[in-house]
């Protein structure tokens, strides 16, 4: 079997099974594990999978720039955002993450909603500036341009002073065994810190993020109490999440 054929077969197995193991692939193709590891390295370099210990997982497709991601899955993200807004009760303190789905979420807030929104996203804060009844608290720090959010020591200090009812978390990967992940080390740390300051963490997950993984782990799947997905999401993708004790809401 040619290398290109073997790589295609690896990607087919990954799409079919949600993960591949180097040892099993070595046996199936009759080649050494070193050869399989080389294949996985090269496929990872092309952004086609995410290597993990012992094998690989599907790579998240949600790692493009903020501008590019604004045009991806927009209709689905808006449905998810609308459903997420229904979880907010008047008078609550709510943390809203950065990202394209969060940007849609704040657009869906009712004009008569009285609440406090805490965010480390300047764009989210700006979008709420004209809202008549929402108080906005903006956490500062170093700007991480990919998601247009504040990170670093100053952001951590601000986060440590908050007690919130809800945290709407944006991620690039949701996987039952690999957990919640994102593409930046500092951003992953910020998301963990925000989750620790909220009574409930809600992950907003469009299709490209499900059963996928990125380089940096935010936490286990159970770091979230609730995950909002598209209505048409396959039960095969959501059953392992629900089995872990996480509530899945369809939008």
UniProtKB/TrEMBL annotation:
Residue ranges constituting the HTH deoR-type domain according to the UniProt record: 3-58
Keywords, comma-separated and alphabetical: DNA-binding, Repressor, Transcription, Transcription regulation
GO molecular function: DNA binding; DNA-binding transcription factor activity
Secretion signal span: none
PANTHER family: GLYCEROL-3-PHOSPHATE REGULON REPRESSOR, HTH-TYPE TRANSCRIPTIONAL REGULATOR SRLR-RELATED
Protein's name according to its UniProt entry: DeoR family transcriptional regulator
Originating organism: Paraburkholderia monticola
């Amino acid at each position: 079997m040619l290398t290109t054929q073997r790589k295609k077969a690896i990607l087919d197995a990954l799409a079919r099974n949600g993960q591949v193991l180097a040892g099993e692939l070595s046996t199936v193709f009759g080649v050494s594990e070193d050869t399989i590891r080389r294949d996985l390295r090269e496929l990872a370099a092309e952004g086609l999978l995410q290597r993990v210990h012992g094998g690989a997982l599907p790579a998240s497709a949600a790692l493009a720039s903020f501008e590019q991601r604004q045009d991806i899955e927009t209709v689905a993200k808006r449905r998810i955002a609308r459903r997420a807004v229904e979880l907010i009760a008047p008078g609550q303190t709510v943390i809203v993450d950065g990202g394209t789905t969060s940007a849609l979420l704040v657009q869906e807030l009712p004009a008569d909603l009285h609440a406090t929104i805490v965010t480390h996203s300047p764009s989210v804060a700006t979008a709420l500036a004209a809202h008549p009844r929402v108080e906005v608290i903006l956490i500062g720090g170093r700007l991480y341009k990919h998601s247009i959010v504040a990170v670093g020591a100053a952001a951590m200090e601000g986060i440590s002073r908050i007690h919130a009812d809800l945290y709407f978390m944006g991620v690039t990967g949701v996987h039952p065994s690999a957990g919640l992940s994102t593409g930046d080390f500092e951003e992953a740390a910020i998301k963990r810190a925000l989750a620790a300051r909220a009574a409930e963490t809600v992950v907003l997950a469009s299709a490209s993020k499900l059963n996928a993984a990125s380089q940096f782990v935010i936490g286990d799947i159970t770091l979230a109490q609730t995950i909002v997905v598209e209505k048409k999401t396959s039960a095969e993708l959501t059953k392992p999440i629900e089995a872990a004790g996480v509530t899945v809401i369809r939008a």
